[in-house]
Amino acid sequence: MAWGPYRFTVPNYSVETIRRSVQPRVEPQPVIGATPPLHKLGPGNEVINLESTFHPHHFNKRGLTQLAAVRQAVNALTPLPLVHINGNGMNIFGMWTAISIDDEETIFDTHGTPCMVVANLSLMREDPSPARSLAIQAAVAGINFSLSLRLGF
């Protein structure tokens, strides 16, 4: 698996768990005396969590170097391509921006280097579709798309 220039393989650290979450955007509309119907706003953001456990001493501490670089990429907020290569070929997931990275370092050696690291990287899909871009631009510009109806009697 790769996110941009970062390879999640055995020499550095490999991904053991991929957790994917997709939640559509819906809002209940208040109605007096009835169950609120759902207002369907469209697709929501898709999130992928990549979880990994690695042992830096087994791989000449290369995993720690990559972890430091991934932390910098998280702060840069740059969308990068997410690719997964398996026995059936390559799956290209599109462009993803890191929204968080959590890591836990345990069992330290005499030099203070962790012997075990558990990392969890959360990525959010960047959707470059024209419809989504137009909606975001309209919201930022304050454009009102509401319709008004005048009845003349």
Describe the structure.
There is one protein chain. With 153 residues, this protein is an alpha+beta fold. Helices cover 18% and strands 44% of the residues. It has a seven-stranded antiparallel beta sheet with strand order 2-1-7-8-9-6-3. It is elongated and about 65 Å long. The model is unreliable at 130-153 (pLDDT under 50).
Quick gist of this model?
With 153 residues, the protein is an alpha+beta fold. The protein is 18% helix and 44% strand. The chain has a single domain, classed as Elongation Factor Tu (Ef-tu), domain 3, CATH 2.40.30.
Labels describing this entry:
153 residues, alpha+beta, Elongation Factor Tu (Ef-tu), domain 3, 7-stranded antiparallel beta sheet, 9 strands, 18% helix, Myoviridae_GpU, Putative Phage P2 GpU
In total, the number of domains comes to 1
Strand-pairing-aware structural class? alpha+beta
Which range does the strand content fall in? Answer: 35-45%
Regarding quaternary structure, what we see is: single chain
- Helix segment tally: 2
How do the helices and strands line up, and which of them pair or pack?
Blueprint: E1 2-3, E2 6-7, E3 17-22, E4 25-28, E5 38-42, E6 46-54, H1 62-76, E7 80-86, E8 89-108, E9 114-125, H2 130-141
Antiparallel strand pairs: 1-2, 1-7, 3-6, 4-5, 6-9, 7-8, 8-9
Pfam families: Phage_P2_GpU
Protein name: Putative Phage P2 GpU
